[in-house]
Amino acid sequence: AIGNSAGATGQQSGSIAIGYQSGNIVQGGNAVAIGYQTGNSNQANNSIAIGYQAGQYIQATNSVAIGYQAGYNTGVSDYNNVYIGSNAGINTSGNNNIIFTSSGNTSSRVLNNTVILESSVNPIPLLYGDLANNILYINTTSNTTSNSTTNLIVNGIVRAGAYISFTGLHQVLI
Q1: Which of 43, 52, 67, 150 has its C-alpha lying 20 to 30 A from 88's C-alpha?
Q2: H/E run at residue 16
Q3: Tens digit of each residue's pLDDT (9 = 90 or more) over 96-135
Q4: How far apart (Å, rounded) are the C-alpha atoms in residues 99 and 154?
Q5: pLDDT digits (tens, 9 = 90+) for 67-81
Q6: What pTM did the predictor assign?
Q7: Is 8 exposed, middle or buried, given 0-12, 13-18 or 19+ CB atoms closer than 10 A?
Q8: What burial letters (b/e) apply to 85-115, b meaning 16+ CB within 10 Å?
Q9: Rama region for 163: left / alpha / beta (φ>0; ψ in -120 to 50; rest)
């Protein structure tokens, strides 16, 4: 541990803490915390936190948080999450999630088996993936069809190739 109060209380074996209060107050085994208050207060086993307050106030097991407050205040029993970008996964609980953002949604939410690509410019994610049901949403997060076998849902104009352009609900076989 390198830095004032880094790894000071409850740092487990195989862990690395670099920065002021990083890995402080219980840092799990084989965890890495680099930056100001990263992994501070309950960073779980096998987790990586890099950036100002990344992974602070509970970081899930087997998780990665990279960026300003990425993975900040996540669930205590969560696992297998990847949060990349400013505020990625902040106040989010759940398992098996991948969130890429440029200053993302900071409201509390529960997600499982989800992929999100979002930005602060638009409150609706550009890409939203439901990994449990193999559904990819583009520019929406809701299934507006009654077809339970739909795997791609697009909100907006779709252009396929140089000759086809359509809007609305259409079934296209390629």
Answers
A1: 150
A2: strand 16-18
A3: 999 999 876 767 889 999 999 988 787 788 899 999 988 8
A4: 19
A5: 999 999 988 789 999
A6: 0.85
A7: middle
A8: bbbbbbbbbbbbbbbbbebbbbeeeebeebb
A9: alpha
